[in-house]
Design goal:
single chain; about 375 residues; mainly beta; 2 domains; six-stranded mixed beta sheet; five-stranded mixed beta sheet; disordered N terminus; binds the ligand Nc1nc2c(c(=O)[nH]1)N[C@H]1C(S)=C(S)[C@@H](COP(=O)(O)O)O[C@H]1N2; binds molybdenum atom
């Protein structure tokens, strides 16, 4: 019995074999290959993508964005009107809250991310706070709900993809209504013609195919919001998934075995490289281990393209013949350090445990 019976929520599996449903999701939603961590800006097509339902077919001439709810003036904007507004451009690292989920045991059955659900793009669009300012926020407003054009069914309920931000977070100067990704119109899978980009937060709130912005006076519990809770059990009240936990990843060194991805490397001096980011403040350090997280060596940190984009790191490794388990571990200014073992939770959210890469150094 690989799959445990469904109680009220998420199904889990102790089996190393993925289910046909997980395979179906994995082929629709691809990750960023880890060797692409070499690019400070992930090329379009290599950037991970997650679409819960189907990618909607959007006619940009008929599409519009509506701003409504607890606002003085309801606004309806065409794509042309949005493109004509003042723009900002920012490099932003987005990570899916489910990144690392498939490494948990038992594994929550959902999109089976290993470690590749992260990427950095240069987003251009109009700052959200200016639009909310024009609409005029009324007293009592506490959250802003973002609704996409895509619809689906979850636990028997049909709904549009929607997610909210607390009002204060929505009014931050770096939140973008983006129509351009890496200098090109948004590709269909990344939200054409318009998406939200909320830097520092896990990806679920950066709503694609955005069509509605609703300012509300009650906590929003619709759309996908209920899914994004960190709970120890189905009965646990839990805490909402919000900003990205600190994480570092390395480009696996050497060359891989086709199936196992175990690495092979010649002895000598190697520069191990990777990227590091956090949604909870500046990154403080990255450490590298070659003995499976027993001993650590500080890595060198490079500069980020923006305060909300990942930073490069590197570490010189004098590799002698033998078997190694490489790990990287980061800390941020909020006092968080990546855990060495998994922090399990029911839905497999925000698992930022250290990456492990097995390397054979052979002449
Ligand atoms: N409308 C809509 N927006 C969405 C999603 C979705 O399925 N529908 N997926 C979310 C999730 S879970 C993530 S991690 C990011 C992924 O963005 P990307 O596909 O551009 O990398 O988009 C978010 N925005
Ligand atoms: Mo996600």
């Amino acid at each position: 019995m690989p799959v445990s019976p469904r109680r009220s929520g998420t199904i889990h599996s102790d089996s190393p074999l993925v289910t046909p449903e997980e395979l179906g999701l994995a082929v629709r939603n691809h990750g960023t290959p880890l060797e692409a961590l070499r690019y400070s800006v992930t090329p379009i097509g290599m950037h991970y993508t997650l679409c819960h339902y189907d990618i909607p077919d959007v006619d940009p001439r008929r599409w519009s964005l509506e701003v409504e709810g607890r606002v003085r003036h309801r606004l309806v904007l065409s794509l042309e009107a949005l493109q004509a507004r003042p723009t900002m451009t920012l490099s932003v690292t987005l990570e899916c809250a489910g990144n690392g989920r498939a490494l948990l045991s038992p594994r929550p059955i959902s999109q089976p991310w290993v470690l590749e659900a992260v990427g950095t793009a240069v987003w251009t669009g109009t700052p959200l706070w200016t639009l909310l300012g024009e609409a005029g926020i009324l007293a009592g407003a506490i959250e802003v709900v973002f609704t996409g054009l895509d619809r689906g069914v979850r636990d028997g309920h049909e709904h549009a993809y929607a997610f909210s931000l607390p009002l204060g977070e929505a009014l931050r100067e770096d939140v973008i209504l983006a129509h351009t990704m890496n200098g090109q119109p948004l590709p269909p899978q990344h939200g054409f013609p318009l998406r939200l980009v909320a830097p520092g937060w896990y990806g679920m709130v950066s709503v694609k195919w955005l069509t509605g912005i609703t300012v509300v006076a009650e906590p929003f519990r619709g759309g996908e919001q209920e899914v994004y809770w960190i709970k120890q059990s189905e009965e646990d009240e839990g805490v909402p998934v919000t900003r990205m936990m600190v994480r570092s990843l390395m480009v696996p060194p050497g060359i891989p075995d086709f199936l196992t991805r175990r690495r092979f490397l010649a002895p000598g001096r190697h520069i191990v490289t990777g990227r590091v980011w956090s949604g909870h403040g500046a990154v403080r350090s990255v450490d590298v281990s070659v003995d499976g997280a027993k001993t650590w060596h500080p890595a060198e940190l490079g500069a980020a393209e923006s305060p909300v984009a990942w930073r490069p790191w590197s570490h010189v490794w004098l590799a002698e013949p033998g078997e190694y388990e490489l790990c990287c571990r980061a800390s941020d200014d909020s006092g968080h350090t990546q855990p060495i073992t998994q922090n399990w939770n029911v839905r497999g959210m925000a698992n930022n445990a250290v990456q492990r890469v097995w390397v054979s150094v052979v002449a």
